[in-house]
Design goal:
Layout lengths: L6 H4 L12 E7 L4 E4 L4 E3 L2 E5 L3 E6 L2 E2 L8 E3 L5 E3 L12 E9 L2 E4 L3 E6 L3 H18 L9 H19 L1
Parallel strand pairs: 2-11
Antiparallel strand pairs: 1-4, 3-8, 5-6, 5-9, 7-8, 9-10, 9-11
Helix pairs in contact: 2-3
């Protein structure tokens, strides 16, 4: 008795064949550039898909990041990197270029780079300075601009900056 393969099985379209349950990782959420005030929390996101489920490894400035128990850095279950408080001192700084790597037995996927910057100004001042810049940029083109003198906008800038200075010191 000889066994022969049925010719109809050879002509089944590939779309009808169930996909393999295993596939290499791919990054579905990349970390983004972030600026954070010193001593404030921050998160760099990284999400990956793959089967088997990939493991996430973070890198800072090209070096694998070692996250030790009790560290101010924590790897989140979804793969993100959480900073309890961003550090920027002579001894240690969190500022740098980060990326994540997702790995399983079928391959490796690397995220885009993300730069973490530590803001030098106190947060309140930095935020208010940003809002003031945004406000003035939008006010400059407002139709009612002509009703106010140029000195009023300078007085407004001086007042806001003085208020910020008092709040931060």
């Amino acid at each position: 008795m000889t066994t022969t393969w049925a010719p109809e099985l050879r002509s089944v379209p590939s779309a009808l064949i169930p996909p393999s349950s295993s596939h290499p990782p791919r990054i579905v959420e990349h970390p983004i550039d972030t600026t954070v005030p010193r001593h404030e929390p921050a998160t760099l996101n990284c999400k990956a898909e793959g089967s088997p489920t990939p493991t996430i490894q973070w890198y800072k400035d090209g070096v694998p990041l070692k996250i030790l128990p009790g560290s101010h850095r924590i790897t989140l279950p979804a793969g993100g990197l959480f900073f309890l408080k961003v550090v920027n001192s002579r001894r240690e700084t969190d500022a740098g270029v980060y990326w994540c790597e997702a790995k399983n037995e079928l391959g490796v996927a690397r995220s885009r780079n993300a730069t973490l910057q530590v803001a030098e100004k106190p947060y309140k001042y930095w935020l208010n300075d940003h809002l003031l810049t945004h406000y003035l940029a939008s006010w400059q083109f407002a139709p009612f601009q002509r009703r106010f003198s140029a000195s009023l906008s300078l007085d407004l800038i001086r007042s806001v900056l003085a208020y910020n200075f008092r709040q931060c010191h």
